[in-house]
């Protein structure tokens, strides 16, 4: 049984690596967090009620409940612009946003509206219209305003869990092809009042090569599944793992368990980066050895 499970894990990881036209180098994918989620993600793909494509054409057709967001995009935009004036769309104040920590170094900023729960208290107070709209759409599990300033970028990456699809609604954008997201090699340029939906477990990255700022509404929408057991699994993982990544906008907002301990892991990460700068061969050797030991432990058990 254990060998069957090990082979299943390896097959799932290989499928995740080969999925799509754009791929990480094998060494990077081996250590990527999506590799460890591969068996669960393969089930999400296999029993998804929506197509497993990089972009999902016409989000409103697959998710009609999202229509109020597009209909009231100007109201949402007004609250986002007010937040920007108050400088509340920003990087995390400390090491308490493990999911997006690496993005902050290249200009990306955010203000959480909700994260697998009801609205953050700060969001309910500062964005009453937007949070009210989101409250009426239970399939939206997470939402935030995100900003990408001129020259900002997100390096190519893939998200770890396939239980959701990502919606981007343009609010205050350059309306220019120089400000874009690239998902599996296909570019989409944001426009005010327009939206796109994509599978964030395909490799994707973004750049703003214009001289204007970009603000969008960013939502994670629950992936609909063909069977109740698959929907239950999706929600179980979201509730017990993804929800632990909650990050605060300000004091009084919820901080998930993963983010409460992230600062300690980040201290170790800084030491690991120091080792990489001093001796890359030793650094990568130790990382690969750790993976081999984990696989060997699974085989031994």
TrEMBL record:
The chain crosses the membrane at residues 282-300. It comes from the Bacteria. The keyword Transmembrane applies. The keyword Lipid biosynthesis does not apply. Pfam families: Asp_Arg_Hydrox. Keywords: Dioxygenase, Membrane, Oxidoreductase, Transmembrane, Transmembrane helix. Residues 71-224 form the Aspartyl/asparaginy/proline hydroxylase domain. InterPro entries: Asp/Arg/Pro-Hydrxlase, Asp/Asn_beta-hydroxylase, IPNS-like_sf, Lipid_A_LpxO-like. PANTHER family: ASPARTATE BETA-HYDROXYLASE DOMAIN CONTAINING 2, ASPARTATE BETA-HYDROXYLASE DOMAIN-CONTAINING PROTEIN 2. Belongs to the aspartyl/asparaginyl beta-hydroxylase family. This is Lipid A hydroxylase LpxO. It comes from Lysobacter niastensis. The gene is lpxO.
């Amino acid at each position: 049984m254990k060998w069957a499970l090990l082979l299943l894990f390896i097959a799932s990881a290989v499928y995740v690596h080969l999925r799509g036209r754009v791929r990480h180098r094998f060494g990077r994918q081996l250590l990527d967090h999506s590799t460890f989620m591969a068996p669960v993600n393969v089930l999400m793909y296999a029993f998804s009620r929506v197509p497993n494509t990089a972009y999902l054409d016409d989000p409103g057709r697959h998710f009609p409940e999202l229509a109020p967001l597009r209909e009231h995009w100007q109201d949402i935009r007004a609250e986002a612009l007010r937040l920007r004036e108050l400088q509340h769309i920003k990087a995390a104040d400390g090491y308490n946003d493990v999911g997006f920590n690496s993005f902050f170094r290249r200009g990306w900023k955010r203000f959480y509206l909700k994260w697998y729960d009801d609205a953050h208290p700060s969001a309910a107070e500062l964005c009453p219209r937007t949070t009210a709209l989101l409250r009426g759409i239970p399939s939206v599990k997470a939402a935030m305003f995100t900003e990408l300033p001129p020259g900002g970028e997100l390096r190519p990456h893939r998200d770890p869990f396939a239980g959701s699809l990502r919606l981007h609604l343009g609010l205050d954008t350059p309306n220019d092809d120089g400000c874009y997201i690239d998902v599996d090699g296909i570019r989409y340029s944001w426009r005010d009042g327009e939206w796109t939906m994509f599978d964030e477990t395909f490799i994707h990255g973004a750049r703003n090569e214009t001289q204007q700022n970009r603000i969008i509404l960013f939502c994670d929408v629950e992936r609909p599944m063909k069977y109740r057991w698959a929907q239950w699994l999706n929600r179980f993982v979201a509730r017990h793992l993804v929800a632990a990544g909650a990050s605060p906008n300000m004091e009084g907002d919820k901080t998930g368990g993963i983010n409460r301990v992230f600062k300690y892991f980040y201290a170790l990460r800084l030491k690991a980066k120091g080792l990489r700068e001093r001796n890359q061969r030793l650094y990568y050797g130790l990382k690969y050895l750790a993976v081999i030991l984990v696989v060997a432990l699974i085989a031994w058990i």
